[in-house]
Every structure is written in C-alpha cells, then in structure tokens.
Amino acid sequence: MMMTHRYPGLAFALCIGLSACGGSGDDAPEPKPDEKIYPAFTDISASGGETTTFDASESGHGFSTPAPNLSDENLELHLEGDLGFETAFTTAPNSEHPDLDGLGPVFNNADCNSCHQRDGRNSTPIVPTGKDRIKLGSEAGLFLRISKAAAEPCTQGTEANDYCAPIGVPNFGGQLFHRGVLKARPDWEDNLFGGQADVYLSYETKQMTYPDGTSVTLKRPLFDVENPYDAPGETLNSANVTSELLQDDVLMGWRNGLPVFGLGLLEAIPEADILALVDIDDADGDKISGRANFVFDAVKAQAGDPNPVSLGRFGWKANTPSVRVQSLGALRGDIGITNPLFPDESIVGTALHDSYLTRTGFTDTGEDENGAPEASAEFSDSVVFYAETLAVPARRNISSPDVREGALLFEQLNCTGCHKASFVTKSAGKIGGLPMAEALKGQTIYPFTDMLLHDMGDELADGRPDFLANGNEWRTRSLWGIGLTQTVNPQAGFLHDGRAATLEEAILWHGGESEQSRDDFMALNKSEREQVVSFLMSL
What we know:
Blueprint: E1 52-53, H1 72-86, E2 106-107, E3 134-135, E4 143-148, E5 175-176, E6 179-180, E7 198-209, E8 215-226, E9 250-255, H2 263-267, H3 271-275, E10 294-296, H4 298-302, E11 309-311, H5 323-335, H6 351-359, H7 377-388, E12 392-393, H8 401-412, E13 423-424, E14 430-431, E15 434-435, E16 444-445, E17 453-455, E18 473-475, H9 485-488, H10 503-508, H11 515-523, H12 526-538
Parallel strand pairs: 1-12
Antiparallel strand pairs: 2-6, 3-7, 4-5, 4-9, 7-8, 10-11, 13-16, 14-15, 17-18
Helix pairs in contact: 1-7, 5-7, 8-12
C-alpha cells in the first residue's frame, strides 16, 4: 500500500541529469499513528548488488573500478577494454602506430575519456569574464545533435520510414562535428583542423526564488553555428543563407557526455519489468506518465533480423538499445573510428567526405590495408565489455539523520514515481547480441530510474525528436553514483547540456510533468530541501 504523501498532490520527479518519470518505487509498510516509516531503500548501500565497489568514497576514480565479482578471465578482458577506452587516436595513415590511426576525418574528440572524464561526466565549458561566448575546441565534451524537421510526427517505426530515426541533414548527417583532421575541409588552409562548422557557446541566466525569499541563479547554454564547410563564413545572419546546415528546418540540441559505470546492469533489466511501468494515459492520476522508446538496433540488423527494433535504454532520449550500439556508435561518430558494427565513416557519401578523399589521395578511407574497419573486433569487444562491467559505487553516509530524512522526503515527494529505486537483473540471456557476463546476472540493483521517456517541459526541451521520443521528452537518468559526480570531475555539470552546476539547480529546471512537484519542492523549508539533496549526495 502506498504511503500517504506529506504534501497532497505532490508528484515530483527529481530527475537529476535530465530525466523524467513513470512507474512507482518500492512499497513501504502502512505506518502506525505517529510512527515514521522509512523507505526500503533508505539503508541500502550496495547499489549495484555484487558489482558494487566500496572503495570509491571521495575518490577521483570512484567510477573507474572493475566490478569486483568478475572472473579472472573477464577481469582481463575488462582491463584490456580500459586501455582501449583511454586510447587517443591519430590521423591516418600512421605507419609507426597503425593501430592508433583513423581519427576523423571530422570528429568531436580523439578518445572516449574526453567526453566521459574518469568514466563520469565531461567538464562544463566556462565563458571567461569579459567574453560573450567561446568557440568549442579540443576541450569540449559536449556536442550538437542535428536533424531535419519531419513533416509530421513519426509514431510507428517501419522499414519504410527508417524506423522513425531522425532525418539527417543533407551533406552533414545527424551529429555536428566541430573538429577535423588537417585537410578535412576544402578550405583547410584557412580553417586548420576545422570540422563541419564552428560552434560557439554562450549562456543566459534567470532567477528562481523560493517562497522563503532565497534566490538561485540558473544558466542556460546557447549555441551559434557558423562557418559551415559548404558555405565558408556564412552565419544565420548572412544576407543569403545557402548552407544546408543553416536552413530553418534544421533542428539542433546539445548533448553532454554521460557516466559509463553500471551500464551492463541497466541492459540486463528484463524488458517486461520496464514496460510494466509504462503509463502513457496516466492511469494512476499522479500527473506522471511514462513511454518506452523503440529504436533501430544495428546488432539485430547485422544479424539479419527482419524487424531490427529494440527497446531504447541508453542516451538522453533512450535512442540506443544496448551498450554495444551506444559504445561502437560513439567510436565511429564522436571519434571517427570505423568498427565491425559501423564499418562506414559517419560522413560517408557527403560532399565533404568525397572531396576529402580526393584531396588526400584516398589514404584515409576508413579501412585498413586488408579492407577491414579501423577498429578490430577484439578492440571493439573489449571496449564494450569495459563499459558493461564497471562497478557501481556504494552509497555513503546512509546512517546520517539528514540522509535518512532526505530519503523519506524523496519518497513522500513521489520522486520514486520516476526514479524507481530497484530492479533485479535477468539470470540468463544476452546483451548486445552476446552472452552476458556472469557478474551481471541476478543482481538486485538500485539505479533509481524507470528507463522511460517523460515530458519535462518547454524549458528543458530541445524540440528535436529521436525515434519515438518527441522534442520535450527525455529518459529518466539513473541516480546511482550522482553524489560522486563532482568528486570525480569538479567541473562536471548536470542535465543533458550541463546547465546545472548543482543538484538543486537540476531540480529547479524541471517542468512539464514535474512542474507542480517542483513547486512543492520549493515550498519545503531550507532544512528539508537540504535533506533531499543530502540523500541524493549519498547515492
């Protein structure tokens, strides 16, 4: 039986890291008069079951530990993948180190770690005092997704409509690469190491004021895209805009790097358990709904499956079905390294790629001398396995009175309506098309997510659909480990674009399904608000 809410009507999704809501949390016993009953998860420390590491407290490497229950053989594979994750790639050809070449020709970063620093979030770019904006360069761990606006919403994926995949921008694709190798652009002598276009970041701010008079300044990142390769020097303010990238029907949205620990466990959650939380029509009347995203699955397609569609589990809009697709898609996309799952360059068939091949004498084609992709199957498998088997950090300070009271408030505010506390992973089967590691099987885990999509309001929206997700919807972020985020990387931010510098700011950005709940959180007194944050910091 559900616990009576302290604040009537509350349905707050504390969707930290841009998430949203749906489902319900662990049931709690009916309280006796004047008896305080804490949620079942209050005293749980092993968030990842037997994959939990208890050596991560206050550690800058708290997200980088192998799952402690890995077999010796699996640990060896994990450590091999760790080396691959840290590998910085170079321009092809590299005769001295051919295993490192293949970068680009356009890309966002040269290694995995740059977007997932120490296996966590990337640093939030800072605009120096006295400057209005900065140009994204090698230090940026965020990038822009791009696509063309569809004539009408896609509600049912089929082969004919490309399974509702975002429509790529002609001659650009679905991701904007702001960096390039030396001769990536036709005008490379004027744009050394330039990518498809230049991206500039700036911020605007607004104030949020609590009923008690306390104010918080919130910032929102803005972007300007200029100097596209197909119309050098052009901007949106040009008298005659000709670039395919700068047309009115091109949609763009920021994407921040996500932590990579615990991912294999999330993929091992039985699909039926996630779908059981779907509440599209808000049948329970709590003003919180939840939708599943169903997406194209490259693993199924490669295996010849006539219906290559799977439940979306990863990415800010649940737009990828597995750690394998997510990892190898980023290897090919973010870095430009072709691999067995994605053997073609991300910009293949574009005018930029065709001219690059001609300009460089076809020395960097995305294949090695034997016609194989740049990353081998062994390299690819090890990197995927590494991301599947990183340990989940244990909770901290669970006996603290403030943490315990925060846990109670977290449930009373119905944050568990979205951030479902626990699941049990499946005991057999495959993930990413391969047999799952024994270490991931049958684990009781506490990720605090329902893995579903939710409308988080206009202020967080990017207006860009992704498969079945609309422009206002985002996947509920897992909260485990969130309290160590800025221990691992002090410059990391929260939400899909890193706009929130603190967990409190992340809460205050919520709207849509959680608007009333956000307002009710704001109605708490300062001590209670701090207790909620203390609980989150314990995760």
